[in-house]
Amino acid sequence: MRYATCLFSVLLLAPVLAAQDSRNVTEPVIPPACATLDASLTRAGKTLAPEDEQRLDTKRIQDAMDHCGKGKGVVLRAHGAADAFLSGPLELRAGVALVVDKGVTLFESRDAALFAVSPGSCGLANAPGRGCKPLISAQHVSGASIMGDGVIDGRGGEKLLGRDVSPWDLAEQARPDGRQQVSRILVADYADNFTLYRITLRNSPNFHVTYNHGDGFTVWGLKIDTPKRLARNTDGVDPGGGSKNITITHSYIRTGDDNVAIKGGTGGLTQMTVSHNHFYWGHGMSIGSETNGGVSKIRVFDLSLDGPDNGIRIKSNGSRGGLTHDVLYDDVCVRNSPNPITFDTGYSAAGTLKGDLPPTMKDVTLHDIRVSGGGKFSFNGYAKQYRIEAYLDGVWVTDDAEYKYSVNHADLRLGPGAVNLKLPAGDDSTSSRFGGGTGAAKSCADKFVEFPAVE
């Protein structure tokens, strides 16, 4: 790696400070109720009794939402000892909130037939296409929301009715290159001004939340609580192609795959803020692997990553790559991660490594990043003409743990804040220093908090 030292200070953050959700996002408010539905089922531990597995609430929940006026909500509440609802697929309506009250759990049915797009298409491994409906869908609606201090449980680790296999078992059976046909908790497409507020999501059979082709998505106070292992492909929140103006804030996420994965497929993704969040186990704060439509104007700040497999992560490969640029990570603490910072253009879990869609990363800034607990830093570009361009301004390891480094096809600019990473020369790479590299790492003591208790 070639080094050049500049004695003048450069404001490295200027290109990306405006990169964020363009809306003025404020804390949502739960609307008045148009209908209140009383629970008729009672939880048996963290699930339902076998005799209750056919007592569906789907129709009465859907009917209430269908007849609710805009600006109001359908509330699911406890009634005496009854504290649970059971449902097949539900469709949100424009301007209507589904509110799950505190102490209430909305369980997804374990009957795969209810979710089948065509007869027999759901509950399979190694089958192409998408054979299952989600538990909750928001399709071509504006102003819909899911709110409340209750829980929505996708039951991904429980066996399907009449089967000796769970959705997560099917995910394991589909390794390495197959595809499991299981449901997701929430799929929102063309759903402008969509909101998730204070709700807890657990145990999705597949991704917990996907959002595509929308303008305006607010996630505030969300909790996702799913096991670390044997819960494959259970991404937390995945905003995707054709979307813009997205905020994820004041949320707590631990799951079996990406905590957040910003996907830049067809149509790309732009103008997103991720702020004041706490992530725990999972695969990290990710961009990719789809970046072929472009990812831009992303701001991530005030984030703790406590024990994830990956911390700050941009991933792609030659079969699904594109330009990722104007991205800022600011005030982030990572501890006990095997891969605290990973910019990887050879992501092998999706598609072929080489192809006609090579990934490039430009104007990516790491500012005020503190890492402890060891791990590997990777800045691995795709090829000489498809590189990684990153600014490191105040990036520290804060202990004496073992750290490793990999740098290839990368141009790294260090400063003006101090950087104490021991970056190697790498392959086809350069490094430039701006300013004196002064300053010290701030403490992360107040960043790491326990995952909040949920009833």
From TrEMBL:
Residues 1-18 form the signal peptide. The keyword ATP-binding does not apply. Keywords: Glycosidase, Hydrolase, Signal. It holds the Pfam family Glyco_hydro_28. InterPro entries: GH28_Enzymes, Glyco_hydro_28, PbH1, Pectin_lyas_fold, Pectin_lyase_fold/virulence. One of its GO terms (biological process) is carbohydrate metabolic process. GO terms for molecular function: polygalacturonase activity. Belongs to the glycosyl hydrolase 28 family. This is Polygalacturonase. It comes from Granulicella rosea.
